[in-house]
Amino acid sequence: MSAPGADGIQALAATAANPDAPVAPDTLTLQALRRAADDHGLPAATRTLLADAHHALVAASARADAERQRYRNLFDAVPDPVSIIAEDGTVMDLNRAGMQAYRRAREEIVNQNINVLNPDLPRDHLMPVWETLNRGETYVIEVTNMRGDGTRFPVEVHSANINFDGRKCIVAVARDISSRREAEQRYRELMENIDKGIVVQNRDMGFQYCNGAAMRIFGIREDQRASEELQADHWRVVGADGRELAREDYPSQRALDTGHMIESVLLGMYHRQRRQMIWLTVTSVPQFLPGGSTPAQVTSIFSDVTELKRDSALFDRAQSLAHIGGWEWDIARDRLYLTEEAIRILGATLPPENLQGLLACLRDSDRQRMRCAVERVALGGHGFDLELQGRRHEGTPFWVRVIGESEPGEPTASRVTGTLQDISQDKQAEETLRIQARTDPLTALMNRDAVLTEIAERLADPERAQVAVLYIDLDRFKMVNDVLGHNAGDELLVQAARRIRDAVGDDGMIARFGGDEFLVVCDASGDHRRPGRLADAVLHAFSEAFRFDKDEFSITASIGIATAPDDGQRPQQLIQNADIAMYDSKHRSRNGWQLFSPELAQRQQDRLQIETQLRRAVDNEEFRLVYQPQVDLRHGRVVAAEALIRWQNHQLGELRPDLFISHAETTGDIVRIGSWVLREACRQVAEWRDQGLGIVRVAVNVSYRQFVGEDLAEKVRVLLHEFDLPGSALELEFTERVLIEDAPATLRTFNELKALGVVLTIDDFGEGYSALNYLRRLPIHGLKLSQLFTEGVPSNRSDVAVCQAVSAIARSLGLGLVAEGVESEAQRQFLLQLGVPVGQGFLFAPGLSPDEFARRLELPLERASA
User: Fold this and answer.
1) CA atoms of 56 and 612, how far apart (whole Å)
2) What pTM did the predictor assign?
3) 439-441-444 Cα angle (round to 5)
4) What integer best gives the mean pLDDT of the chain?
5) Are 202 and 253 in contact (CB under 8 A)?
6) How much is the average pLDDT of 587-609?
7) 292 and 347 share one domain
8) Are residues 518 and 482 in the same domain?
9) Is 306 in contact with 279 (CB distance < 8 Å)?
10) I want to staple 446 with a disulfide (CB 3.0 to 4.6 A). Which of 450, 480, 544, 848 is the partner?
11) Are residues 682 and 730 in contact, defined by beta-carbon separation less than 8 angstroms?
């Protein structure tokens, strides 16, 4: 418990102001008063008054006893000796702690002069005490008091004014400072015996104390005064670089100015007369007085490192010749030390202060490797030998070999030391060869083998195994390649690679995986949202159209994302699952990204099952055709039909065309399926003819693969001859992709089909990249207006504009026009006003079986148009 101040001392004795208040005699009882009243014949009112007075007197006595007891309890509760002293020096009271400290009974001290506790006090010792107390201040003094057995002990006495029982007195609290004196003595002995130099300076940098070690380091003899020998004019102070320091740069002055410790500064001190240089490592600590906001003095602790500095200079020279630098990390203080050669290798303008500073110049992956390796050593692990890559302050890259281990003789591994060697030249030569083997020559990105190796290495490293793969596929790339040629396709890939690189930046590794497919590999351990953000950045990078001379193409991307270890623990498995997610994204809606999930894998399995069953579907007679009427929009008369394929599989059930046609296109089975459709349509037309329904023209879709994969004109000629049909009984619908295949073979095939009388139509016109010059060159009979546009009319202005444009093209070129997807009367009326003569859709009929279609042909005109 600390000694109380003036207010505390006065409050402590406040209850002692009147401890001996008079108390009513115990003999004066209520019964005695009543008897006296009766004897004297006093009135009843007087007797009641006497009784009330008695009660009040008893209560006052009880309160006084309680106050005395409270005072005594508080007085004795103070752990330090407390005495009440009269003006003449007589001790009026003493607490229990005082009796224990002085080892005397209370009566041996109370009513005795204060000299009984300190016989060495001068006669007029109370005069300065009263002068201080009369100014309203607390008087503090250190004296030596005496115990009852004659032994002495030092005390620090705090005195204050009080009024005790109506008398002006002193309350004095004595604190035993024996332990503090012993501690100060031990501190002085430590200061003198420690091998570190210690100097204490005041606010004006004047020298107040200099221990023995400091005297020896500075060469000051015992008969010399340190304050004189350490004057500034005797010494020239330089920094680690040999430049003279101004006074404000001294560690001690900096500590005074900033109020913070200045740690481990290398200083050179040159004695001008002795011509002697000593090197010191100095730490300066500011010291504050209680309640002070600025340092009152500064203590500097230093070591003589002159020999170490000399050896270090020689070692640095050897290191610079071998391009090897040294480093040390003090774990407890998080301080990093670098040799001059290490600083030169790293290209640092100033050495980093902690390990993070060294790591900052390394690339991300190597920074993590270095940090983990150092921390393993710090935890008692084995040393490490790493080759790391980084970038210097001015931007030039470098390679270093870093070796580290715990300091020998350090059982707690409090320091990690090592070397770093500049191996940039060797690595640059290796890197050139490695890059050539790992780089895609067209885009300068990593190639397939390189990215597989990199992913495998990351997955094998537990600290980097949480890696994400973005599988990027360009939408409609083949269309550019087909329209503009392979040179334009290569240029598109180069531009796409550049956009992906700009979007990803340093957050991922990019590779061209093959064709128009790219991979981005990124770390997903610290931020699980990073793969999605990178995918969004890549999609945004493709939002602007690609330009090739005068042509402009909107090329988007479909992206699938898979993350290890949940989505795969081997490179091929991870990439395959990312591919599955990409495939799903492409088929749901292009220009998007999709995360892999087990459900997607199941869909992939389902696709494989579909493709397997698809190969046997023709042989198993699982396909059938339905026929959707094409109707005269004005009169409702059926003028033709479109053959639509349906697939009923014994395992998979009924499958929609949009579910299996794309698979057939991918696998190439579409060619065989297309041949079956063409033959079945011709057979059905012949059957209707034989039923007396006349020749019904049937439209059949021809895939691009079917067009280029076989002699289509010859096949059609054979079928027409087999079923004895005119060419006009058959209408072949081609996608716009056939239009842009501007080759002599294409033109020849179209001319041969036209010569057979076959009607040639471009299906879903307007969805792709049609050009009028292609329509002029090829012998096309008509266009089909896509359902994509008719479904929005007449309310959607954009769809209306497209329909008007396509209708105008057909009229200008003298081509027929059929509208698909007519489902409402409003659409029919709009198309009629637009001049479209024929339409098909659910407004008239869905796909019908051959018999249902035949009955529709037999209906009267008004029923057929209903």
Assistant:
1) 114
2) 0.43
3) 60
4) 83
5) no
6) 83
7) no
8) yes
9) yes
10) 450
11) yes
